[in-house]
Amino acid sequence: MADIIEGKRPVVEALRTGVPMKCLLLGDYVKKDGLVEDILRKAKRADVPVKLVPRRTLDERSERGSHQGVLAQAKPFGYVGIGEIVDAAARLTAERDGRALVVILDHITDAGNFGAIARSAETVGACGLVIPNKRSARVEASTYKSSAGAITHLPVAQVSNLVQTMMRLKEEGFWIAGATEHASDVIWDVNLKGKIALVMGNEQEGLSRLVMEHCDLLAKLPVEGEVASLNVAQAATACMYEWLRQNR
């Protein structure tokens, strides 16, 4: 997660969307206008300590030079191990007649797409998200806003090897479904019942060759318009809801 949030409105928004914070730094020279009063109220409600500091301290900590006398230090996001997502899936399959969904992101790099996918995944009841620990969007302060707070309720695992993780999920009874426009089958005709790990590819290149080779099945969304494909967040939402429809 990005460590520093700076500026009055960004800090207000971060507090509003529940970004976990270590502390809030407020310039000892700042006049208490409406925004500052709002920040102090929200910080008190969230039990975030507020420290009065000189301008020099804020200038030194600022990354963009736009602190406006206010900086917040966010806590690191609590990633989980893949084992915790597997355990959550086991609990849910017992409650949901054998159905569970894990969403794997094959090097999604856009933070907005990542947040939107997390929001949809939490909405359909996914057990968790899996992302690579390199060359991938990760949970930052902005993710709380782009996911509408859903990231707070969704386990996220950072892994060093996606293929090994897919193999682990197969051992746990998951079928690996890759979403790609190069598939021959439309997603409506693919069996997504039960325990499914849905893999979504990078915004520009789609699924990597190695990841695609280790998928059990591939599916595409039907396209009847002139635009070749959907944004990856929109496509992921459509695929997740098809899983939910088949398992309703």
Automatic annotation (TrEMBL):
One GO molecular-function entry: RNA methyltransferase activity
One GO term (biological process): methylation
Domain named RNA 2-O ribose methyltransferase substrate binding: residues: 4-80
UniProt keyword list: Methyltransferase, Transferase
Entry-linked InterPro entries: Alpha/beta_knot_MTases, Ribosomal_eL30-like_sf, rRNA_MeTrfase_TrmH, SpoU_MeTrfase, SpoU_subst-bd, tRNA_m1G_MTases_N
GO cellular component, one term: cytosol
NCBIfam families, sorted: rRNA_methyl_3 (TIGR00186)
Similarity comment text for this entry: Belongs to the class IV-like SAM-binding methyltransferase superfamily. RNA methyltransferase TrmH family.
Record protein name field: 23S rRNA (Guanosine(2251)-2'-O)-methyltransferase RlmB
Species: Rubneribacter badeniensis
Organism classification: Bacteria, Bacillati, Actinomycetota, Coriobacteriia, Eggerthellales
